[in-house]
Amino acid sequence: MLQKPEISTSFYARPHVHIEQAPIAGGIPIGVERVSNAGIRIGGAYGTWGESYNNANLPHLIEQHLGESLRLEERLNLAELGFEHRQILPYLTNEEHLELELQVGATFLREAAFACGWQPSEVEAVLVGITGPAVNDYTERIARLAGISDSALKVSIHKACDGSVAGLNLALNPELPAFPKLGYNIAETLLGKKVLIGGIEGLSRFMQLSHDKNALQIFGNGAGIIGVIPGETMKFLVGKTLEVFDDDGVLELHMYYPHSGRSLVEVTQVQPNHIRVAGLMHEPDEDVPVVMAGPMGMVKLFVRNGVHVVQDVFQAYQKKMVERGVPGKKIAVAIVHHANYKINQLKEKHLQKEGIQIPMPWLLKDFGNVSAASNMIAFLRKLSDLKSGDHVLFDGFGAGTYYDVLAVELG
């Protein structure tokens, strides 16, 4: 049963969070929490940056940004949507934003490697989901700053909130349709290698160009990076990817990355060791980053197709367990993108009607919607409870719309 989120304190107040100050605009806090599980040899780092705002003081900040008051009916019930805090930046120049996000990205890659007991120079691949990159070679630049070798594979995934699970699917699932377009199989290439996967989302930079009152209340900054060795510490069981273009523009998103507009997903070899996976978005008519139809519009958008994808993967999982001779094996937990609590609640309800009972904990009440970072933050917050041999379902979905769902075995 999906438990209703409880009121939380700021992420920065957690006992194991290390806070450093980026020397930009008088000091920007960056909070990082390392997590590791020696039993399954998986670790990672997650956190956020910027000032923390709770539901009570956020409206005043938004009103200052908009230059007008929020009417009562425009104020979202954020607690019901599962959010108590989000972290937001002051106004910075483009150069300051880039400097900050490069430092943030390098910090989380480095800390995730350390959480796994690796030196950054040992990392052989980096796959990062980013909705609106500050610069097109962002993944390459943060890897270099973190001390990761230039010879390591870098994959930048631009599929909005689905980015990190799409990265996990690319690293583990050898049957993805993207590989024939690319000319080689990333999952087969990465078997047995030390790989960092996750999402880094500076969404408050993105939102400073927006006047969408829903988006301004929901999105914040966040990063979550995990370290895995495909085929050893995390093994692919079954999975699926799906693209269904958002013709109605329920969640319109500007593409701040190269895309020809000719196909839904483009896979491009940018450099010998840098691959870009870019999803086509329904872009706003005006030059703004995001336009939302509202939280209930997102519920309809993501639940309708998302339930079917999870059903297909769950059926494939059951068949796989029968083939393995363990038909009663259960999935320990579902790590679902935290778009908002109501979406996850309704998805769980629909799945239960189909006889699919998987725990789907709500774990990000102190972040807001942090897009591609949310699945990996949620996984790291459950990591200490997991053990070798456990099966985990990752459920990613994002604007566009894009869906990646896969079941994995740990340890």
- Fourth-tier CATH superfamily name: Thiolase/Chalcone synthase
**DSSP strand count:** 17
Structural class: alpha+beta
CATH class: Alpha Beta
- Into which percent range does the helicity of residues fall? 25-40%
Order of H and E elements: EEEEHEHEHEHHHEHHEEEEEEHEHHEE
CATH architecture: 3-Layer(aba) Sandwich
Q: Over the alpha carbons, how many angstroms does the gyration radius reach? A: 20 Å
Low-confidence stretches: 3-7
How many domain units? 1
Structure, explained:
- The structure is a single chain.
- The protein contains eleven helices and 17 strands.
- It has 411 residues and is an alpha+beta fold.
- It has helices at residues 58-66, 94-115, 138-146, 163-172, 178-182, 186-190, 203-207, 213-218, 295-324, 341-353, 374-382; strands at residues 18-22, 28-37, 42-49, 51-54, 85-88, 125-129, 153-158, 195-202, 221-228, 234-243, 251-253, 265-271, 274-279, 290-292, 333-336, 391-398, 402-410.
- The chain has a single domain (11-410), classed as Thiolase/Chalcone synthase (Peroxisomal Thiolase, Chain A, domain 1), CATH 3.40.47.10.
- Residues 3-7 have low confidence and may be disordered.
